[in-house]
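Structure first, sequence second, as always.
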């Protein structure tokens, strides 16, 4: 007779054998459950750095990164493919994702892991307080932008330089040191439609801020 069960988080199988001769376990057809090992978040100068580790499983399809602000519903932020890990161990994969969105509030994150059979599991929920993240210094509008983008001082003169990065982090336009005035206009007219990141270096605080910009 064969008996199987669960002990804690482990699975076991029991069976009788008439001798101590060799025997083998055939794992064919056995599907192990999807499993998160860890999920954490760290505040960076350019956003919120998410990191999660999962048990290596070739059935994994992708990861849906979801977020919500206080009092809102979870919304999809991005999708990371199974092969986009930053480190591969013997039994696990480690993933990293940097969120440079303009939240200006406490933000909650979770990751949904999907496999090729249609099954999914969620990570635990982590949070970070990004209230005031650059908002005490300046604001950027309109966003999405078409031909012009404005940087407005929030209560004090600006002492900044700016550059525009593409979605892979490569600098495609350097605006240089900007005029020390309360409202600065940036020309976006000749840029292709897409998602960009505006890098703003504040000379007064020696901090660098990143703003996700959608170009129409």
């Amino acid at each position: 007779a064969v008996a199987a069960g669960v002990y804690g988080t482990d699975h076991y199988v029991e069976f009788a054998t008439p001798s101590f001769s060799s025997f083998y376990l055939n794992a064919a057809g056995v599907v192990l459950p999807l499993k998160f090992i860890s999920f954490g978040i760290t505040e960076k100068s350019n956003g919120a750095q998410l990191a999660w580790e999962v048990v290596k499983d070739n059935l994994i399809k992708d990861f849906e990164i979801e977020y919500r602000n206080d009092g809102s519903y979870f919304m999809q932020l991005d999708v990371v493919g199974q092969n986009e890990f930053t480190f591969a161990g013997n039994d696990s994969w480690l993933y990293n994702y940097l969120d440079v969105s303009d939240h200006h509030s406490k933000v909650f994150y979770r990751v949904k892991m999907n496999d090729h059979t249609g099954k999914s599991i969620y990570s635990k929920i982590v949070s970070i307080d990004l209230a005031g993240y650059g908002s005490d210094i300046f604001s950027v509008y309109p966003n999405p932008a078409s031909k012009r983008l404005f940087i407005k001082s929030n209560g004090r003169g600006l002492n900044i330089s700016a550059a525009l990065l593409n979605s892979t982090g490569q600098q495609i336009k350097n605006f240089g040191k900007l005029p020390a005035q309360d409202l600065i206009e940036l020309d976006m007219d000749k840029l292709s439609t897409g998602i960009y990141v505006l890098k703003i270096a504040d000379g007064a605080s020696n901090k660098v801020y990143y703003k996700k910009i959608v170009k129409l």
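Margin note: The two ends are 67 Å apart (CA to CA).
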